[in-house]
Amino acid sequence: MVISHKPLKLIIAILIAFLPTFGFSNTPIDTAQSSTEKAVVANETEAKPTDEKSEVKAKILEVIGHHVLDGHDFSLFEYEGEHIGFSLPIILWDNGVHFFSSSKFHHGEAVAESNGNYYVLHHEKIYKSDKAGKILVVEVKEIKDGKEVITEKELHPIDLSITKGVLTIMIVALLMFFLFTSLARSYAKNGGISSGFGRLFEPIVIYIRDEIAIPNIGEKHYKRYMSYLLTIFFFIWFLNIFGLTPLGINVTGNIAITFGLAVVTFIITNITANKNYWGHIFWMPGVPLLMKIILAPIELLGVFIKPFSLMIRLYANIFAGHIVLMSLIGLMFIFKNWLGSSLSFMLSFAISTIEILVALLQAYIFTMLSALYFGSAVEEHHHEEAH
Are the C-beta atoms of 232 and 261 separated by less than 8 Å? Predict the structure, then answer.
């Protein structure tokens, strides 16, 4: 299509004629006001040494740090400076048992008194203090580089409190108990046919039996470990799912929890192991004498490395997922524009979807590796294969 020059020139002339009505340029008054406003803003900036964006970043880091830590109260959210949630019981051992509510701390802003002793809450750790809130310290003598050095150590009572993580573990344990006892009763009532809500998990139970336990442990011994494998799978999976809710729960992202789970696998593996398992560790058959002496400490070290890898794998994946997700959400408050905030929201949504898969995947990996360790512990020795 060909456009003649005359109509085109006419359209350009009309646009140029009406261009001032759109107000793209500032009037002299607006320009003066703009210059004055810029001067005022510059003065205010010089008067405020702290950068607003740096404060936002510091606040985001504080929120992330608070999210991944365990809590002595269950704060659902904060509204106009008020924490909406409920308190949890504080149980301390400090020359006797001290029992009181976490509300006495007022979210770390007040000093709690119990039987004449005073305590403060700082970064979810409880310290012994005086009435004014000053943390009490004790002098400890240490030998460093052959010299006696006196250092100050803060006083900690033994904390046996029911924290947010402990409460979540109790809730998951009760949920699993009622869920699977009802599933077991339905089997007994209906002649081996499941019914009720628990039947949704029946395919997973069968999958763990047929695809994890039997192939890795063997049909002869797998029934001894099925109860533990089912428990550990659903326990980790449910805790991971709770961690994806807006409640700020991070149980499996706590290394103390993953350490406890790994220790249970370690104990079961070594208690139920047969003599062939220990024989392969301390005196490996089919290798020269010198190699046996060299391999014995390496194999013994592997006994402890296996549960350590279980602990670190679960902890690192869940902890890193929480950090990444919270960081992406925090970017919305840094960008403060529709483009950056929309991009952060889409990335957060994508990571949340991936975390749902990771929650199930980590439970599967922990269960699979535990079954592998159990299988190696009860494996029968075959002389033909050894020769």
Answer: yes
Rounded Cα–Cα distance for residues 220 and 213 (Å): 11
CB 174 within 8 A of CB 166: no
Four-residue CA torsion sign, 287, 292, 298, 301: positive
Residue type, 94: D
> Which H helix or E strand runs over 310?
helix 289-335
Question: Taking a C-beta distance cutoff of 8 angstroms, is the pair 371, 213 a contact?
Answer: yes
Q: How many helices (H) and strands (E) does the chain have?
A: 12, 10
pLDDT tens for 196-235 read 777 788 899 999 999 999 999 989 899 999 999 999 999 9
**Local structure of residue 288 (DSSP, 8 states):** -
- First vs last Cα of the chain: how many Å apart? 88
12-21 pLDDT, tens digit each: 444 444 433 3
What is the Rg, in whole angstroms, of the alpha carbon atoms belonging to the chain? Answer: 32
Q: Are 101 and 113 in contact (CB under 8 A)?
A: no
